[in-house]
Amino acid sequence: MGQSGKNRFLVYPFDGSPLGGPSLLRWRLTLGTLFIAVLVGLCWLDHRAAVPGTYLVPLAGALCLLATEETLGLLGAAGMRPIAWLVYAGNLLLVATVWMARLVPAEAAETAMLRPARSAGVLSIDFALTLVALALFLGEMGRFERPGSAMRNLAAALLAVLYVGVLLSFAVRLRLGWGVGALASLVIVVKMGDTGAYAVGRLLGRHKMAPVLSPGKTVEGAAGAIGFALVGAWVTFRWLVPATTSGHPDGSYYVAPWWGWMVFGVFVGGVGIVGDLAESLLKRDAHRKDSSTWMPGFGGVLDLLDSILLAAPAAYACWALGWVG
């Protein structure tokens, strides 16, 4: 471990850290168990809440702010300085728009004051994203002094909005569209894939999958990720989803076709792997090992959410197309 400077973060994640070996493993198990317990509790409360998203949407908002902070930190390390408060506000707006649009059913909106807004698409995520882009352009216009940075900062801001706000909004759509079980299907499959990649990669990993981008990831680990994701999909759609998803008006529940959970496991698990590599790309370009250091052993919020963010639209597509119900 003789390397020094920024390059050591590319290979040795805990060089000089007191949390190494068994201590690090115990810390990860303890913190991971706490995260799971809190998430399960919030899902149970949200499933029983009169208003969908009462408990989980605030959690999504908090994660959105933390992930935005870390994304801005990575961009700053790479020399880009977008207008931070506009990025924060834009990402929160995107998440809130999904929730607000779902809270006002189309039938109710026909007789409410929101009818013009709904018919004009004002409550849509597309319109919200357009407003955010407009605000970002205006912000850069307002602080422009000399050529050389405006386009770079504007592109960085749009990247942060798309990466955090837009992708996270798909997870919110899953909860509001099909119930807690739909959101759980995303989280369980992706995190089972992460577990499989880590376990199989450590035990059997021999062939590097992306040696420059992420030296620790192996082809064997990726195969393990897909295998574990399939197990997670089978368990989720066999028991959890039928008991928790929103059903038909006659009281029946959505049931995945026999092939649906397999497609979901492979597709969402595979995109989760890409999501992990996508964050690795951002971190490597910024010469960072973790998105932040406030959770030793886990990195930051982005290190926990990276695979979920890109997998959320994939999971949404599976549900929207009827592949899993």
Structure description:
The protein is mostly helical and 325 residues long. The chain folds into three domains: 18-48; 53-176, no CATH class; 179-245 and 253-325, no CATH class. It is 69% helix and 2% strand. It is built from eleven helices and two strands. The protein has helices spanning 22-48, 56-77, 84-103, 106-109, 115-119, 125-143, 150-178, 180-204, 219-244, 260-285, 301-320; strands at residues 208-210, 214-218. The chain has a two-stranded antiparallel ribbon with strand order 1-2. Helix 9 packs across helix 10. It starts with 21 loop residues before the first helix and ends in a 5-residue tail after the last helix.
Helix-strand category: mainly alpha
Tally the helices: 11
Q: What characterizes the major β-sheet? A: 2 strands, antiparallel
How would you state the average pLDDT, rounded? 84
H-E string: HHHHHHHHEEHHH
Number of domains: 3
Indicate the low-confidence ranges by residue numbers.
1-19
- Helical proportion, percent range: 55-70%
Query: What would the principal axes of the Cα set say about the shape?
Result: globular
- Compute the separation of the termini in Å: 51 Å
Number of strands: 2
How much of the sequence lies in strands comes to under 5%
Spatial strand order of the main sheet: 1-2
Radius of gyration: 21 Å
